[in-house]
Amino acid sequence: ITKANVKWDTTPTDVQSATYLGHIMNRGIVGRIKTSAGGTQWVYMVGNGYESTSNKAALLVFDIATGAMTPIPVGPTWTVASGDAGRNGMGGITVVYDNERNIKLVYGGDRQGNLWRFDFSTGTPAGAKGFDNASTPLFTAAAGRFAVRSPRPPDWCRIRSAAC
Questions:
Q1: DSSP secondary structure of 69-117
Q2: Contact 33/52 with Cβ under 8 angstroms?
Q3: How far is 129 from 132, CA to CA, in rounded Å?
C-alpha cells in the first residue's frame, strides 16, 4: 500500500478529528445508512476511543467517499475538576440492520458505564436516544465499571429489528 492507494486518512492533528479522536481499541463498522433525503450513503463508524482532547464519548461517522467526519457526542462533559473518574470515551459498537441491510441502530458503551443507542433509520442523528426517545443512556453500570467491548443486542433484535 502506498500513499497513492489511500483515499483519505485522519489523525488527532487534523482539524476535524482534533477534539474527538482518542485511542481507538475496537474495530469499526463499514455499512450503508439512509439519508434524510431518502437515499443511502456508505459510512465507516467507530467509537471515538479514550483519552481524546475532549474526554467526551462520541460515535464517529466517516463518509467513505470523502473522509468527512460527523461526531455524535454523548454523556457529560469531562472537566479537570472531575478528575480521572470523569474521563470518558466510547469503546466498541454493535449495529442492527434493517431488511435492506442498511444500518438502523448502533449501540455503544462508554467509559462511564453507559450504554447508548443511536437511531439511523431516517438519517444521521444529532444524538443518542434512550427509552422513550429521551437523551439518556439505555443502561448505566455500577460505579467503577465501564463498557469497553462491543455490546451484544438482545435476541429479539435479531428476530424483530423493528422492535429494537
A1: EEEEEESPPP-GGG-GGG---EEEEEEEE-TTSBEEEEEEEETTSEEEE
A2: no
A3: 8
List pLDDT tens digits, range 33-79.
Answer: 999 888 999 999 999 998 888 888 899 999 999 999 999 988 766 55
Find where cell 483519505 sits.
8
Query: Can you read off the three cell numbers belonging to residue 134?
Result: 429521551
Q: What pairs with residue 76 in β-bridges?
A: none
Which residue bears the cell 489523525?
Answer: 11
What are the angstrom distances between the C-alpha of 12 and each of 23, 38, 60, 87?
Answer: 10, 33, 13, 18
d(CA 137, CA 59): 14
